[in-house]
Amino acid sequence: MSAGSVALIVPSDFGVADLYELGIPAAVFGTPQPDLADPWYELWLCGTGSDTRGAGPGFTLHTTHGLDDVVNADTVFVSWVPEEVIEENAPVPPELVSALRKAHDNGARIVSQCVGAYALAEAGLLDGRRATAHWMHTALLAERYPKIHVDDSVLYVDEGDVLTSAGMTAGLDLCLHLVRRDLGAHVANQLARRMIVPGHRPGGRSQVVDLSVPASDDQSLTAVLDWARARLDEPLTIEDLARRAAVSPRTFYRRLQATTGTTPLQWLLGERITRAQVLLESTDLSVEKIAGLSGIGTANNLRHHFLKQVGVSPSDYRQQKAPVPKHRGLSQQ
């Protein structure tokens, strides 16, 4: 048994950009982490061609499964459609559409990265739902599939059994979000630390953030945020953070938003929710006590913000995450 099977659909031919987006879920779900969760996920590389081999510029990728195996997976990842689907309005390969429909009907969680959303859309899995893709392709997605509520401003959208993300690195944010859903915040945070990436970038964060290269490395901001994380149970304000950074509140606000894409108060709330998640997973402390230790104040406040941010109550979250189920139902919230 494992934490769940993940079928990664590999096209019969791909380029460097495709390899990057294929590599993200492969790295997250295909690298065992026995000290974090044992067993880990089981990754299946599912080829779309009869030779089950993807060929790239100067390399080949041998796959372990075919499209027929997708139906039996717990989670299915698709990050690709042929270029002519986007450029020439060609149809999405019917065998891919059929495989996604069958997998979804069989209870699988279906996930897309970037233009993979077009395959989910063609399968009818996004009708009446919110969805996203890379901002360069969302306008066309909305035009071709008017039943979808396309959001071009977010990193990813979680609709429970169907999830979509923007392109490139947003796929990593979505993968870590899935690990957080399946195995808890502590495991996701430790994995992110090993990958040297932020532990949690909320899906609602903008795809387009001004990340202009600063004149010098801003180590002071990192130090301030680390200082704040160690004091989440205290009544921190933007003035406290700005004072620690030796800048005005307005300057601190601008620098934090330019660097993280969020405001100081939103950043604090996100960190406090993550702290509450870890405490719910790892302790038997009361919700009231956890609310105080995470800096959210009262149990009612924690329930309100937790439900809004995570989608379930603190009590339900604790019940879901301890112990972690080791069966197909793991992939469902």
From TrEMBL:
Superkingdom of source: Bacteria
Keywords, sorted A to Z: Transcription, Transcription regulation
Region (Disordered): 314-333
SUPFAM superfamilies per the UniProt record, alphabetical: Class I glutamine amidotransferase-like, Homeodomain-like
Domain HTH araC/xylS-type: 222-320
Compositional bias annotation for Basic residues: 324-333
InterPro entries documented for this protein: Class_I_gatase-like (IPR029062), DJ-1/PfpI (IPR002818), Homeodomain-like_sf (IPR009057), HTH_AraC (IPR018060), INH-QAR (IPR052158)
PANTHER family, alphabetized: ARAC-FAMILY TRANSCRIPTIONAL REGULATOR, HTH-TYPE TRANSCRIPTIONAL REGULATOR RV1931C
Name of the protein in question: AraC family transcriptional regulator
Taxonomic source organism: Lentzea flava
